[in-house]
Amino acid sequence: MSGIVAEVRGSAGFLTLDRPKALNALSLDMIRALAAALLEWRDDDRVERVAVRGMGREGPFGAFCAGGDIRFFHQAVLAGDPRLEDFFTEEYTLNHLIHGYPKPYVVFLDGIVMGGGMGISAHGGDTSLRIVTERTRMAMPETQIGLFPDVGGGWFLARCPGRIGEYLALTGQAIGWSDALAARLADGVLAASELPAVWDSLADAQAFEALCERLRQPAVAQGLELASRRAEIDRFFSLPGVPEIVAALEADGSEWAAHTAATLRKRSPLMLHVTLEHLRRARHLTLAQDLRMERDMVRHCFRLRPGAASETFEGIRALAIDKDHAPKWNPARIEEVTPEEVRAFFDSPWPAHAHPLRGLA
């Protein structure tokens, strides 16, 4: 079972993430099935556009994708499973394939959209449509599990307006549809009740053109939490480092600043530092360059401190395995992280000619 349903109807290819009990968390089989379908349809003249959705627990839609299969990561570390390396190489290759896809790529971001779900939705080219609904909850929460916003997260978050990307990357804050549009992480909004009919209509080229025209009309924004805090976000999250950001937040005195500082204090101190450096480097990179850097970084997440000593292993244990929500981070405090510990994540373990993503253009 690949966890993906692929079909061609009319002039469109339709992909459904079909692992609803796991909120469509991406497995290696799913990544391979998505890549295989997209590669096949790229060269198939019958297929003029591709649509992607998630299967909810009560039927189509309602959940898009909760990210990568972090339980698999935990098991793979314990077992020394080499498929852990394949997972990230193939996932990042898929992200890049979507970024350069030559046909319209329409993704229905209904319900939860996190981590790896962002990787298969945020990278569409100029002809992509990223559709959100009133049920969308979007986030890159990786610092909560001792990881960093990967799947090209450094690239797309660094291109959000102002310092919104740094804020979302470090805090892992979830946002709704209005903020997703404001952050340039979505292109249009539809009511969730409309999705089944719109999905079926995409088999027809004229219906697709009508949808594109409709989504070009500006939506009436609601619940713009990011926009209302934009000045504060830019002021704090443009500071040079994580210690400076947290110190300024804690000195501010406002309820929002105190809450934000408390959130950051719960995240992996080491990975907060790594994540901020990641975004600031990625702002000046192409997506291919960023994905190669992320591939280096994610290997270090599991190899710099092997096994249970890994921040990522510990974060997954606390959140998803033991569920005690009490990770023992090392270092324990933001102020204890050294520049040397951060720099180590950006040293490639491979020479350029042997890098697993050397083929990305």
UniProtKB/TrEMBL annotation:
GO molecular function annotation: 3-hydroxyisobutyryl-CoA hydrolase activity
Domain of life: Bacteria
Record-annotated Enoyl-CoA hydratase/isomerase domain positions: 13-346
Keywords of this entry: Hydrolase
InterPro entries: ClpP/crotonase-like_dom_sf, ECH_dom, HIBYL-CoA-H
SUPFAM superfamilies in the cross-refs: ClpP/crotonase (SSF52096)
GO biological process, any: L-valine catabolic process
Protein name: Enoyl-CoA hydratase/isomerase family protein
The organism of origin for this protein: Ramlibacter monticola
Lineage: Bacteria, Pseudomonadati, Pseudomonadota, Betaproteobacteria, Burkholderiales
